[in-house]
Specification:
Helices cover 84% and strands 0% of the residues. With 151 residues, it is mainly alpha-helical.
């Protein structure tokens, strides 16, 4: 398949669909509802659309990294962040391991920062596309830490 727009859409779908599946398999449920949460905890309806939009950006970025950057280190960082991203919900919601989830999201945050720092030199558009992701994961890490502290 040579059409770059179709390739990009397939890459985005390749991130979005597993992300949606993980979200469906590992929903907050009663356990999460009973936890103490900080005042800045957003309503549940915010998370799905936010993550869906971010998954599309992550997918577009992945397509760019694989097709334009030619940098194996950047590809490795992109793959690592995706694995960590997909691991967080099973650890937090599936296992109820708030502390372990904080470790996962902290590693994810570091990986995103390393990706942006490396991408800004080889693939600056990808670095920019990851900025909303960096902001959201920073917020998620703060929220995870607050939930851990309160419980």
């Amino acid at each position: 398949m040579r059409n770059p727009m179709v390739q990009m859409a397939l890459f985005a779908a390749g991130v979005l669909i597993p992300g949606l599946l993980i979200g469906w398999l590992f929903q907050p449920g009663l356990w999460y509802e009973q936890l103490e949460k900080p005042a800045f905890n957003p309503p549940a309806q915010v998370f799905g659309p936010a993550w869906a939009a971010l998954c599309v950006l992550i997918g577009i970025t992945g397509w760019r990294v694989w097709n334009r950057a030619g940098d194996p280190g950047l590809r490795a960082l992109w793959s690592a962040q995706l694995a960590l991203n997909f691991a967080w919900s099973p650890v937090f919601f599936g296992l109820g391991a708030i502390g372990a989830a904080l470790a996962v999201v902290s590693l994810l945050l570091v990986t995103i920062v390393l990706f942006i720092l490396r991408a800004r030199l080889r693939e600056p558009v990808s670095a920019l596309l990851f900025l909303p992701y960096l902001l959201w994961v920073s917020f998620a890490a703060i929220l995870n830490a607050a939930v851990l502290r309160l419980n």
